[in-house]
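=== RUN LOG ===
request id: a7f3
mode: sequence -> structure
chains: 1
length: 268
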Amino acid sequence: MSRKAGRIYVGVGGWNFAPWRDSFYPAGLQHKRELEYASRKLTSIEINATYYRTQSVARFAKWRDETPENFIFSVKAPRFATMRKTPKEASESIERFLDSGVMELGDKLGPILWQFLPTKKFDVEFFEAFLSLLPKKIGGRALMHAIEARHDSFKTAEFIALARRHGVAIVIAGDSNYPLIADVTAPFVYARIMGTRPDAPHGYDNKALARWAARTRQWAEGNAPEELPSLAQSKAKKSQRDVFLYVISGAKERNPAAAMALIERLSR
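=== RESULT ===
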C-alpha cells in the first residue's frame, strides 16, 4: 500500500463456522486453533460473539494473544445496546459492554460496530443522543465507531450530517438488500459486502473482485467511488483513510476465499 493511502484490512465475520472446516481450515485443525489460523490468512476479523453475549476480560486477552502483530479486530457491539427503546436504557448497556474487557485487545482493537435492526427507523433525537453516548477515548486510547443502519429512513442528509458531526462511520452495505449509503462520515471507512455466490470458487467473479478492490483503494486514498450513491457531499479536505472491509453473509462458506482474493489483489 502506498504511503499516500491509508491502511486496508480485509476479513470476514467470526471464525467458528462448521462449513469452513471443509473449505478453509486444514483437515484435522483443532477448533481452538481456528482463530490462530484465520488471523494469518486474513488481516482482520469482525468479532460476532460480542453481539450475543458478554465476553470476559480473559477471553479478549486470549483473542489478542492468538493473533499476529498488525492484525485488527472489529467488535460487534451487543444487541442489548442497539435494541433499547430509549438512550438512557442504551447507555447502561453501552457502559457495561465497554467495561467488559474489550480494551484488552489493545492495539488490535479496530472499529466498534453498532448494528441496528431493519425495523429501527431514523429518529434524529434518539440518534443524536445515542451517538453522544459513544466515547471518543477510553484510558487515552482513541475509539472508532461505525453504525449500521438497515432501514430506508436513514437515507437522508440529516443522518449523514449527524454521523459526520460525531465522527462515526456509516457502514457501507454492499451487494445487499439493506440501504446503500456510501457517504464517508469518519476518518475511516467500514464496508460489509454481502454478495458472495456458492457457484463462484472465490465467492465473487473476477469482475466483482476487481470492482471492490478498486473501490477499497479509492477510499484508502481519500477518494469516493463515483458509481456509489452519495446523499450529502462532504466539504472536508481530502485525506487518506484506513479501510475495514468484511465479506459477510451471502454464500458464507465462500467468504474466506473472497476475502483472501481481495487481499491478494490489493497487495499487487
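=== NOTES ===
The CA atoms of residues 187 and 241 lie 6 Å apart.
The mean pLDDT is 96.
=== END ===
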